[in-house]
Amino acid sequence: MNKTVRYEVDLNHLPPLTAAQEAELKALSELPDSDIDYSEIEPLDEAFWQNAVQNPFYKPTKTSTTVRLDSDVLVWLKSQGKGYQTRMNAILRQAMLRALCPKT
């Protein structure tokens, strides 16, 4: 018998923490990094990152918005066929990632 239990959590209205949970969080926040035991965690070397893949279940949320674009930019995006909004998002994402992770 296979039962699936589903429930939703409203992240804007989380239940309050218990006194025990608050005490545990306080103790962990005061723990110095030098006291953390990493012995069971293997170091992540270059081989690990070469084989790493993006989480297949990750999908960024989409937000509907209105943008004002130069006409020639919009014509260029649409001239490449269907999916101009997806292409625009990809271009903006590349610019965002370059800004967040500048090469030194």
Task: Describe what this molecule looks like in 3D.
The structure is a single chain. The protein is an all-alpha fold. It is 42% helix and 0% strand. The model has no long low-confidence stretch (mean pLDDT 89).
Could you give a quick summary of the protein structure above?
This protein has helices at 19-30, 46-51, 71-79, 84-100. It is mainly α.
Rough shape? extended
In terms of quaternary structure, what is this?
A: single chain
User: Kindly state the mean pLDDT as a whole number?
Assistant: 89
Major sheet details:
none
Total beta strand runs: 0
Structural class designation: mainly alpha
Put simply, the count of helices is: 4
User: Any idea what the radius of gyration is?
Assistant: 23 Å
What is the H/E string? HHHH
Low-confidence stretches: none
DSSP helix fraction: 40-55%
In what range is the share of β-strand residues?
under 5%
**Roughly how many Å apart are the termini?**
56 Å
